[in-house]
Amino acid sequence: MTMPDSSTISPDTIVAFISDILERRGADSYLGEAVTMSEHMLQGAQLAEQAGANDDLVAAALLHDIGHYTNEFPENAMEKGTDNRHEEAGAAVIAPYFPALVTDCVRWHVDAKRYLCATDPQYFDRLSAASVHTLKLQGGPMSDEEVAAFRKQPHLDAIIQVRKWDEAGKVPSTPTPPSRTTHRCCSGSSTGTRRSDAETRIETRISTP
């Protein structure tokens, strides 16, 4: 497969660019988890599809960790990132090409973990060992003031749901579709020039082989 030229990313090429990243680098290890990056991301998307989620939520579940691959994007795509945190980095690079709901789910999925750990006594018990470790690095459970502020997120329900799929998508040996299905998954949500071209919806939903 020929690697797409990152300098030519556009609304017409962003989905193919993301698909290629997962094809080439999906086998990368995932921060101490027992699954690879692509297994984790595809499991998240598969869980969204199985729940009957719409195209934007499926795309958000797939792309929530795309920030781990920001070195694949042009340097100027990171201008709005903060401290190279993967959630900020990921949101910055997809924002021009996907709806605000998708971008918000990517940007806030780490804070959603902190929110859930502060508001749902049982959620912490669902965290993997690696996720418990990163929770400490990410600031721990939210304070009451942070919880109150986070509840004002316009896409709160979607953000929380994507976070739950994120945590659930770490099961070794779970069959997932091939990473080339990324193209079908994202095409239904990618905005192009903010949907001015009325892009094609997903023709084939993600399904377990």
What do these coordinates show?
- The protein is mostly helical and 209 residues long.
- The chain has one domain: Hypothetical protein af1432.
- 47% of the residues lie in helices and 0% in strands.
- The chain contains 9 helices and no strands.
- Helix 5 crosses helix 8.
- The longest helix has 20 residues.
List the helices and strands and how they pair.
Layout: H1 14-25, H2 37-50, H3 55-63, H4 86-94, H5 100-119, H6 129-137, H7 144-150, H8 156-168, H9 182-187
Helix pairs in contact: 2-3, 2-8, 3-5, 4-5, 5-7, 5-8
CATH superfamily: Hypothetical protein af1432
State the major sheet: none
Using DSSP, what is the number of strands? 0
> Which architecture name does CATH use?
Orthogonal Bundle
Give me the secondary-structure category. mainly alpha
| Strand portion | under 5%
Distance between the termini: 23 Å
Summarize the structure.
The protein is mainly α.
Keywords:
209 residues, mainly alpha, 47% helix, 9 helices, Hypothetical protein af1432
